[in-house]
Amino acid sequence: MPKGRKSLPPLDYLLAFQVTGKTGSFTLASKELNISESSISRKVKLLEQHYGVQLFKRGHRSITITSEGFELLSSVSEALDILKEASSSLVEKETSNSITLAATNSVASLWLMPRLNKFQAVNPDLNIAIVSSDDDEECMAASNDLVILRGNGDWSNFHSELLFGETIFPVCSPNFLASNPDVTSKKYIQNMDLIDVASSHFEWMNWTTWLKSQRMNSPQSVRQTIVNTYPLAIQAAVDGLGVALGWQHLVDRYLDTGTLLCPLGDNHVKTSDGYYLLVPKN
Fold first, then answer.
1. Which residues sit opposite 57 in a β-bridge?
2. pTM given for the model
3. Nearest residue to 227 (alpha-carbon basis) of 213, 245, 248
4. What is the pLDDT of residue 95?
5. Which domains does the chain show, CATH number per domain?
6. Which residues are within 8 A (CB) of 100 and not within 5 positions of it... i.e. 6 or more apart?
7. How far, in Å, CA of 24 to CA of 174, rounded?
8. Rounded distance, CA 47 to CA 54, Å?
9. DSSP code per residue over the chain
10. Cβ neighbours of residue 97 under 8 Å, at least 6 residues apart?
11. Where does residue 198 rank: exposed (0-12), middle (13-18), buried (19+ CB within 10 A)?
């Protein structure tokens, strides 16, 4: 075997030796490295055979490091520290190029995803993980670097910046409008086939609260389509199942392409809330 190779024992031998030398015990080393005591002892023995020197004097219930072992321990500890630091730097560098962004289902699907390709083109070295959930606690989990939520801008553990306000209006497909021309009249909108979202967020606007803000009665339609996420409601409107509530910024691309339209024109409700980008204070 070439001499250069002989001078380099397996790393796990060195690690077993270093931890044993630090703790002064095969038993404690096995606990720290989470491997058996016999495995620790065997690796140290193989290291001694590799160098041809005794590194520990073994007693009945104890071990004592030899002068050769002490000299090697100093060098091995320093080398392992350098390796740990290099490894940590590499992991930190990799982590710094990754970001996890959490958002509500509506924002993630309708606002964020259509912009993601352009963002990645400008930031090709940034890896992005998207968490989509209507559970605020899940969105604000410590594992997420950035969060987009609806609210008033006041989150105690986060810095917040307004992305866009909340303006809401009816939307439907051109085909639905053609089959239901009365949908353009405000007084008939409550009688149309309406699409609504069933959510645990009672503060989110639905057809009942939208109509109430217009001083109108609750929905009178015999047929309603109820879904559990907002993107499904918009898809239902695109498919001509009825009239949904459209949030400005979230449905803009559908309006721009003519896939959806506003049957009541500029008739809308504007709230005091909005969608905010949240950054943890810590």
1. 64
2. 0.64
3. 245
4. 54
5. 3-95 (1.10.10.10), 98-163 (3.40.190.10), 165-271 (3.40.190.290)
6. 128, 129, 130, 131, 143, 144, 145, 146
7. 80
8. 9
9. --HHHHT---HHHHHHHHHHHHHT-HHHHHHHHTS-HHHHHHHHHHHHHHHTS--EEE-SS-EEE-HHHHHHHHHHHHHHHHHHHHHHHHHHHHHHTEEEEEE-HHIIIIIIHHHHHHHHHH-TT-EEEEEE-S-HHHHT-TT-SEEEEEESS--TTEEEEEEEEEEEEEEB-HHHHHH-GGGGSGGGGGGS-EEEE--S-TTS--HHHHHHHTT-PSP--S-EEEESSHHHHHHHHHTTS-BEEEETTTSHHHHHHTSSB-TTTT--EEEEEEEEEEEE--
10. 125, 126, 127
11. exposed
DSSP readout, 38-57?
Answer: HHHHHHHHHHHHHHTS--EE
Report which of 140, 114, 166 is spatially closest to residue 279, judged by C-alpha positions: 140
Split at pLDDT 50, 70, 90, the class of 204 is confident
Alpha carbon 223 to chain centroid, angstroms:
38
Report pLDDT for 3: 46
